Amino acid sequence: MSWLVLLLAGLVEVAWSQSIKPTQNFTRPVPTLLCLALMAAAVWLLSQAMNTLPVGTAYAVFTGIGAVGAITLGAVLGDDPISVGRMAAVSLIVVGIVLARITT
After folding, report:
1. E strand residue ranges, the chain
2. How far apart are CA 11 and CA 76, in angstroms?
3. Rounded average pLDDT over 22-44
């Protein structure tokens, strides 16, 4: 169950990362409140997962999911470049997440 909570925490982190830009440097109240709520939810879910998972593993997987999600959404929804190097980096992160999961 902790792994599912950790996955959810990572997905909320992806949503949080995408919610930062619409705040326009935290000058827009509603987007800023949404951003802060997503940040708090992601950290709370992460803390719940850390009740039974090793801290280092949980945090590495959490940030890995966030990085892969942010890069993917940036490329799909935004104008972020897609290159062989970026895809290789994403692949290495995914392999690291899977390796952390199967060895914990």
Report:
1. none
2. 16
3. 98
User: What is the distance between the alpha carbons of residues 70 and 13, in angstroms, rounded to a whole number?
Assistant: 9
**Is the per-residue pLDDT at 104 higher than 80?**
no
Confidence of residue 78 (pLDDT cuts 50, 70, 90): confident
Question: How many domains is the chain built from?
Answer: 1
* Whole-angstrom distance, CA of residue 24 vs CA of residue 87: 29
**Rounded CA separation 31/23 (Å):** 5
Average pLDDT across the chain, whole number: 95
Residue 34 has pLDDT above 90, yes or no: yes
By residue range, what is the domain housing residue 14?
2-103
Q: Contact, 21 vs 74, CB < 8 A?
A: no
Amino acid at residue number 60:
A
Q: Retrieve residue 21's tokens.
A: 């830009």
